[in-house]
Structure to design on (313 residues):
């Protein structure tokens, strides 16, 4: 759902509701009901009228208000410390990852994300070395288990990863598993390869909880699901600035524009983005910038939210 705010002088700001209910967000219907309930006229204070649980409704409004503040009649170019950011190439589970890794490295990708915990466990672990051998030197490999492993399997993989070019292992064990917070903290303490939280960051309070617990690893942050992006990002920048990976919540170009602006303005290390998702929609007018090895700040500035709105209307 696209949120369009217009102020009294006719300036327009854009936001998007891109919920992932499996990821602890509200549904589109819940977000729509809450936003309609505001009655069509909103102020910055309206954010406080939305329940904290409705992270997408709150986030879309916060993004649209921020956009309104930033976008004058002649829109300011995106202010960013960098002109472009690298993207991570997505690799399929199992053996097909090898051919994809070759193709993606030929077109210039140097960070690769491989889905693990999805094929036969013994085969998969054996494939790790084949995959590392295919990658150009200096490449980084991210493994995403999507919570598929138990403690023993996670330990086995982390031992294997220790002397390989693995940037991090994402969500090795399920966020919902009993004791998963202690388990993740323990695994992070016992192994040199960094761990990343993704599903564990679902919900309005999880980020604060993990920051408070002193999580030493990486935070995979989907800006569209932060609820209160400004507050959350300030807390992250303060204590985990170099350990943040910005990632897609499968938004259209409108939500991607907000999320990528945040990534480009980020003061910490420029880690490869988890935005290699397009083409994603049947109607390509809704897609964000094509999945090249880099996204340019200029391409983000050029995203035409109004065109997406018109295509939907
Ligand atoms: Mg993930």
């Amino acid at each position: 759902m696209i949120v369009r705010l217009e102020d009294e002088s006719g300036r327009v700001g854009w936001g998007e509701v891109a919920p992932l209910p499996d990821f602890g967000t509200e549904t589109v219907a819940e977000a729509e009901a809450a936003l309609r309930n505001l009655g069509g006229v909103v102020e910055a204070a309206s954010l406080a009228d939305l329940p904290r649980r409705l992270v997408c409704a709150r986030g879309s409004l916060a993004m649209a208000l921020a956009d309104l503040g930033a976008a004058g009649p002649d829109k300011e170019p995106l202010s960013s410390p960098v002109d472009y950011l690298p993207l991570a190439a997505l690799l399929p589970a199992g053996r097909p990852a090898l051919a994809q890794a070759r193709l993606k490295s030929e077109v210039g990708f140097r960070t690769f994300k491989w889905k693990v915990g999805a094929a036969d466990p013994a085969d998969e672990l054996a494939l790790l070395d084949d995959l590392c051998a295919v990658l150009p030197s200096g490449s980084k490999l991210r493994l995403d288990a999507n919570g598929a492993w138990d403690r023993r399997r996670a330990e086995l993989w982390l031992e294997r990863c220790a002397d390989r070019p693995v940037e991090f292992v994402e969500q090795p064990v399920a966020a919902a598993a009993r004791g998963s917070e202690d388990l993740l903290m323990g695994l992070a303490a016992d192994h040199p390869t960094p761990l990343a939280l993704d599903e564990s960051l679902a919900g309005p309070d999880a980020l604060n909880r993990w920051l408070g617990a002193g999580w030493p690893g990486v935070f995979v942050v989907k800006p569209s699901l932060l609820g209160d992006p400004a507050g959350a990002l300030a807390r992250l920048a303060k204590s985990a600035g170099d350990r943040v990976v910005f990632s897609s919540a499968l938004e259209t170009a409108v939500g991607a524009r907000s999320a990528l602006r945040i990534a480009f303005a980020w003061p910490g290390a420029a880690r490869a983005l988890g935005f290699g998702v397009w083409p994603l929609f049947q109607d390509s007018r809704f897609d964000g910038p094509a999945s090249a090895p880099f996204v340019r700040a200029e391409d983000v500035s050029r995203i035409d939210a109004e065109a997406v709105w018109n295509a939907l209307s």
In short: The pocket of magnesium ion is lined by residues 144, 146, 170-171, 198, 220 (CB under 6 Å). The chain has a mean pLDDT of 93. The chain has two domains: 2-70, 84-312.
